[in-house]
């Protein structure tokens, strides 16, 4: 049991430990970070507390530009994700965009039914529920809801990539400098990432979409 009971106190205590340990290992780490950022990857992931991208990829602050939301969705009318994409792609000039879904996703599991989650979540997960309806036959072939939720999470990653392909900054970056899009699933129980095969691609390139 933690000696620091209050959640807010715990994060500040943890921050002090992190800052002290980091400076001991690399005295110039924070001063270098303060000069700017040049991450090569834009990571679009789920807000789930079990899927912290920097930790699970064994990377450091400054290595990944991040946008996270419920069920790692990219909607055509979502200004939040669109602005992150534009900044990361057009200004930071990341080389790759990764959309990461995961197993045991609460959003994907909730989208397996039409239960009332409240106005905001009902609206947010509507596209994922539409994916469920569209792929009803293949989902029903799976043995249980856990397997269906994982497959729906995969379908949702593919759907988000399709939306990203239409973003003007991404289209331009693909054409001008070879930006690539990748879909992945994080298996929480195994602690491992796996690339998804791009649907509808005759080349069957795993996780990679290119215009050719």
Count of individual beta strands: 5
Tell the overall outline: globular
- Helix and strand content put the structural class at alpha/beta
Alpha plus pi helix count: 10
| Span of the ends, CA to CA | 55 Å
Enzyme class: lyase
Function: Reversible hydration of carbon dioxide.
Pfam family, one: Pro_CA
EC number: 4.2.1.1
Structure, explained:
The chain has 212 residues and is of the alpha/beta class. It has two domains: 1-36; 37-195, Carbonic anhydrase (Beta-carbonic Anhydrase, Chain A, 3-Layer(aba) Sandwich). Helices cover 46% and strands 15% of the residues. The protein has a five-stranded mixed beta sheet with strand order 2-1-3-4-5. α4 (79-92) packs parallel to α10. It is globular.
What descriptors fit this protein?
212 residues; alpha/beta; Beta-carbonic Anhydrase, Chain A; 2 domains; five-stranded mixed β-sheet; 15% strand; zinc; carbonate dehydratase activity
Short description:
With 212 residues, the chain is α/β, with parallel strands linked by helices. It has helices at 7-25, 29-33, 53-56, 79-92, 106-110, 119-124, 126-134, 136-140, 145-165, 168-177, and strands at 41-46, 64-69, 96-102, 180-187, 192-195. The chain folds into 2 domains: 1-36; 37-195, Carbonic anhydrase (Beta-carbonic Anhydrase, Chain A, 3-Layer(aba) Sandwich), CATH 3.40.1050.
